[in-house]
Write a structure and sequence with these properties.
Blueprint: H1 5-37, H2 41-48, H3 51-56, H4 59-73, H5 76-86, H6 93-109, H7 113-126, H8 129-143, H9 150-159, H10 163-179, H11 183-208
Helix pairs in contact: 1-2, 2-4, 4-5, 6-7, 6-8, 7-8, 9-10, 10-11
């Protein structure tokens, strides 16, 4: 197929436009991430409300970025509004799944069990098995005050391979002992969770200084 000069020029212009758009989108995303890293969440939100951001990002992506800014800002009211928006928007299967899981954990963290329950039902129908099982476990421990997982989790804690896993297990065990009104055990397991959190912070500092992979 032969192309005349005008057609070739139009194709070249379209390709250039696409490249410029991708570069701008990447640059804007990097700026947004840096603002969040520096704790300048209000500036990050203002950036997303600019006409150029509305042009660069689809509505769902932009609203999801706003959600992350509110979460970093620890703005519970703002994050709640964003979840209300995102859970009613048209989205792909993967986007929907990600928002549902994130909203479920947010509602559980803030003891909004009435809002969390329908999301748990959706997660158990659509999410991968490990995610569904973890979500059900959270419901049993936090919403139903269950204590039956203590023996199993204490065993897993002894076998845990890293501080992140130990911290998660210690917090879940502490919560169950709290459900059982065993203050001594609550203190013990919260202390273990704090120790694991300290290890994670040390690892993060070493990684940030470029020494995370060094061995003596």
């Amino acid at each position: 197929m032969d192309f005349n000069p005008i057609t070739i020029a139009l194709i070249a212009a379209a390709a250039a436009y696409f490249i410029v758009e991708q570069v701008m989108r990447s640059t804007r995303l990097n700026k947004f991430a840096l603002l969040l890293r520096d704790g300048r969440c209000d500036e990050a939100l203002e950036l997303l409300d600019k006409p150029s951001s509305k042009w660069l990002y689809p509505p769902f992506n932009r609203e999801y970025m706003k959600l992350n800014a509110y979460l970093v800002k620890d703005d519970v009211e703002g994050a709640s509004r964003q979840f209300d928006v995102l859970l009613t928007m048209r989205s792909s299967k993967n986007q929907r799944s990600e928002v549902v899981v994130k909203a479920y954990r947010f509602y559980m963290e803030h003891e909004r069990y009435k809002d969390a329950k329908p999301l748990l039902e959706e997660i158990e129908k659509t999410a991968e098995k490990p995610v569904a099982e973890e979500s059900r476990l959270m419901w049993e421990i936090f919403a139903e005050n269950d204590t039956s997982h203590i023996p199993e989790m204490e065993k897993h804690y002894e076998e845990a391979k890293g501080p992140q896993q130990r911290m998660r297990l210690a917090l879940l065990i502490a919560t169950q002992y709290e459900n059982a009104h065993n203050k001594t055990k609550v203190t013990e397991w919260r202390s273990k969770a704090n120790d694991a959190a300290g290890e994670l912070q040390d690892m993060a500092r070493r990684a940030a200084s470029g020494k995370g992979g060094e061995k003596k």
